[in-house]
Write a structure and sequence with these properties.
The structure is a homodimer of 153-residue chains. By secondary structure, the first copy, chain A, is α+β, with helices and mostly antiparallel strands. The first copy, chain A, has helices at 6-17, 23-30, 34-47, 79-90, 116-127, and strands at residues 50-57, 66-74, 95-101, 107-113, 133-147. In chain A, helix 1 (6-17) packs across helix 2 (23-30) and helix 2 crosses helix 3. Chain A is elongated, with a radius of gyration of 20 Å. The structure holds a DNA duplex (17 and 17 nucleotides).
Chain lengths: 153, 153
DNA sequence: GGTGAAAGTTTTTCTCT
DNA sequence: AGAGAAAAACTTTCACC
C-alpha cells in the first residue's frame, strides 16, 4: 500500500473524475505548479496506484443494449479449477468483470452484449461450456442508476 | 443510437483502452491527421458517446481492501419506491454501482470499503436502513480476476 | 470529410532554491 | 520536494481541397 499525502489524494480524486484534464489545470487545482505535479502523477503511475486511463463510453449509443450479471458455481473449488475458469473468462470479450466470491456462488461476472439473441448465443456456446462450470444463473439489468468507476476518495 | 463508421469505432476502442493518448497518436493509429481526428472525438463527446475520462486506480494501494456485491430486495416495486431507493444510493460514496435487475432480486450494488469493519458499519447504518429495503444479501469479493471497464468493441 | 500550415497551449526538461 | 524559465510537443484553428 502506497503512502500518500493529502495532495496525492486530491490529485487522484481529480484524475479519477476527469482523466483528461491537463497537468497545468490539475496542478492549479491541487495548489502546485506544473512540474512537481507531473512528477507526482508519474510516480503514482510507476507505483501502480494509477493503473491507466479510460474513456467511458455509453453502451446503448454503441449498440450494446444488454448488461447481464451471471452467478456462476463451479464443480470444483480447487485453486486449479478456479484458475482454469478465470483464464477462460479472460478470452471472452463479452465478459467485462470476473469477481470470485465467498459463499455458495463462486463467481459473479458482468456481461455486455449487443442484444438478447447475442447474449443467449454467448451463454449457451461460451459461458455454460466453460471449464468446470456447474451452474449459471443470470439476471438482466433493467437499468443502471449509478455507475461510478473507481474508489470513494 | 449514434451511427458510427469504422474509424469512429477504432478511435473509441483506442480511447477506451488508453484514455490519455495524445490526439496526434490517436490520429496516427486510426489513419487520420490530427484535425479531423480531433473533430471526430469532439463530436463523439457532444453526442454523449464518450461520457468522460477516468483514471483507473488500484483500490488496494489506496487502502480499500474490501469489494462487496449486495443483492437488495425492496418492499415495493412501485416505480416511486424504486426511485426513492436509487436516490438514496446516489448519496452513498461506498456504493459505486447500482443495477436494477429482473427476477426476485431487485438490485445488485457494488460496494467498496476500507476494511470489514467499515463495511459492516456501512451495511447496518446506511444500506439496510435505506428506503423500502426488505432484504440485503452480501457476498465478499475474494479476488477480481478481470475488470475491463467499458464495452467489447 | 480530409489536408497542411500557423498560432496558442501544454508538456517536459533543466536549473536553482 | 517545489518553483521558474526554456525547449519540445501537442492542440486547435484557419484556409483550402
Amino acid at each position: 500500500m502506497a503512502n500518500l499525502d493529502d495532495i496525492d489524494r486530491r490529485l487522484l480524486s481529480q484524475l479519477q473524475d476527469e482523466g483528461r484534464i491537463t497537468n497545468v489545470e490539475l496542478a492549479h487545482r491541487v495548489g502546485l505548479t506544473a512540474p512537481p505535479c507531473l512528477r507526482r502523477v508519474r510516480a503514482l503511475e510507476e507505483e501502480g496506484v494509477i493503473r491507466g486511463y479510460h474513456a467511458e463510453l455509453d453502451p446503448s449509443k454503441l449498440g450494446f443494449s444488454i448488461t447481464v450479471f451471471a452467478m456462476v458455481s463451479l464443480k470444483s473449488q480447487a485453486e486449479n479449477a478456479l484458475r482454469e475458469f478465470e483464464e477462460a473468462m479472460k478470452d471472452l470479450p463479452e465478459v467485462r468483470e470476473v469477481h470470485m466470491l465467498n459463499g455458495e456462488i463462486d463467481f459473479i461476472i458482468k456481461i455486455v452484449a449487443r442484444d438478447l439473441q447475442a447474449f443467449q448465443e454467448f451463454l449457451t456456446s461460451k459461458l455454460t461450456p466453460a471449464p468446470n462450470v456447474a451452474s449459471v444463473k443470470t439476471s438482466l439489468t433493467i437499468r443502471t442508476s449509478k455507475n461510478d468507476p473507481g474508489v470513494p476518495l
